[in-house]
Amino acid sequence: MRDSVTESIQVRPRFAKDLSHKLNVSEDTVRRDLREMDAKGLILRVHGGAFPVNSMSLLFSDRQEESLEQKRLLARTGKELIKQGKVILIDGSTTNLQLAKEIPLDLHATIITNSPVICVELSNHPNLDIMMLGGKFLKDSLVNIGTTVIDTLVDIKADLCFLGTYSLHPEFGISVPNFEESLVKKQMIRSSRKVAILLTTNKLNTISNYSVGSLSDLDYLIVEDGVPQSTINQYEQWDIEIIHVAI
User: Fold this and answer.
1) 195 within 8 A of 187, measured Cβ to Cβ
2) pLDDT digits over 95-110, tens only?
3) Which terminus of the chain is more solvent-facing, meaning fewer CB atoms within 10 Å of its CB: N or C?
4) Distance of CA 205 to CAs 63, 69, 167, Å?
5) d(CA 203, CA 165)
């Protein structure tokens, strides 16, 4: 029963009455299962419905090997958005680390990042100017956050930002589990002309604790091929360019 409930709320919140008709169970059963799933952190209950919650590990070390081949393929497509001579802002994330690994050695560009790991990965690129955003080090995500990072970003206008994200939902938008990190990402969006996200499907149509921005802030969404068209339609209505990657 609970798997059916989770499946039913992947697109948008539904009232208990709607779910009871769809699943052919009582409204009391739906409400009980929603309460139990909310207590276990599987969903977030809201008035009249629920949202699916991303329950991935917060630790970079745990996430680094998850969906690794998918991240590599997303990164190979994402690198095509990077052009010679541009200023590129790369937010710290395990998928964006794979993007850094794909950047060709002959690229002439400026790379700005809050990720020490990405800085090290790009250190052997002779033609890159690399700017490290320094600040408070967030051990779980291996990124620098805080007011120092935000103050530096205020004076920057990057051509393109690859934003790391934990969850993406057509109604709740972009969200992450750490408040301070959400503030840095908000400024990254403001400090960029274009914003792109490389997204594995386990983050799609889920929410986390702190909002970063709405889908209107997003220009490119690079996703695995095979995502249902009904799901894609929810994102295309925000005038986002959806780039599909064969996995």
Assistant:
1) no
2) 999 999 999 999 999 9
3) N
4) 19, 21, 7
5) 8
β-partners of residue 207 are: 53
| Domain ranges, ordered by start, for the chain | 2-52, 60-245
The predicted-structure confidence for 176-233, as pLDDT tens digits, reads as follows 999 999 999 999 999 999 999 999 998 999 999 899 999 999 999 999 999 999 899 9
Q: Comparing C-alpha atoms, which of 210, 170, 163 is closest to residue 190? A: 163
The two beta strands, 87-90 and 143-145, are: unpaired
Report the topology of domain 60-245: Rossmann fold (3.40.50)
Fold of 2-52: Arc Repressor Mutant, subunit A (1.10.10)
Structure-token pair, residue 195: 């914003």
